[in-house]
Amino acid sequence: METDCYHSHSEDETHSFGKQFAEILAKGDIVALLGDLGAGKTEFVKGVCDYFQVEDIVSSPTFTIMNQYFGTDSEGEEITIYHVDLYRIDSPKELIEIGFDDCMFSQDAIKFVEWPEKAGDMLPDIHWTVDIIISPENDNERIITIRHPNKVMDHSLAENVE
Ligand SMILES: Nc1ncnc2c1ncn2[C@@H]1O[C@H](COP(=O)(O)OP(=O)(O)O)[C@@H](O)[C@H]1O
Ligand SMILES: [Mg+2]
């Protein structure tokens, strides 16, 4: 298990970490986003969508559960980004109705899941976890830990660590 840890001092910095992280993602990847409400998970996804030149306004899927965005990857190919927020899901059964399975197994897309634990057994193997912790000392500071079970981390992100 490879792990990297970063400190963000602002919303913009978390956005920029998301944008840099996007560079190392591959189509088909599933990213679990961990952290309390207001940690910055959605802000991180906004940064990812920025990298993929998504033109739509990226907003929290708290009420819609699942948002879909279309972008362009570094090779100029179309890429789909799903941003799923399971906070309001009461039972994994509800996921069947919203097409969670189709979304998770879509090989042309990158999938982000907030509150992944709510999916229970319906969550397939994940490729990355991004864990955002609100610093107890500073309201605007976040500790972001990125884990990848297989691949060696790309340390280009580490340039921003202070
Ligand atoms: N360093 C930071 N990184 C991300 N968000 C921050 C940071 N500092 C303050 N914030 C604020 O925290 C909130 C994060 O919201 P959001 O991304 O929707 O969180 P989540 O999706 O985890 O519930 C925003 O209001 C943002 O302005
Ligand atoms: Mg969110």
Alpha carbon gyration radius: 15 Å
Cα end-to-end separation: 23 Å
Report the principal-axis shape.
Answer: globular
Structural class: alpha/beta
- Relative strand content: 25-35%
H-E order: EHEHEEHHEEE
Estimate percent helicity.
10-25%
Uncertain runs with pLDDT below 50, 5 residues or more?
A: 151-162
CATH architecture: 3-Layer(aba) Sandwich
Number of helical segments with 4 or more residues: 4
- Named CATH topology: Rossmann fold
Describe this structure in words.
The structure is a single chain. The chain has 162 residues and is an alpha/beta fold. It has one domain: 3-Layer(aba) Sandwich (Rossmann fold), CATH 3.40.50.300. It is 20% helix and 29% strand. It has four helices and seven strands; from the N terminus they run βαβαββααβββ. The protein has helices at residues 11-22, 41-51, 94-97, 100-104, and strands spanning 2-8, 30-34, 66-72, 78-85, 109-114, 128-134, 142-148. The protein has a seven-stranded mixed sheet with strand order 1-7-6-2-5-4-3. Helix 1 (11-22) packs across helix 2. The two termini are 23 Å apart. Residues 151-162 have low confidence and may be disordered. Magnesium ion (MG) binds at residues 41-42, 60, 85, 114.
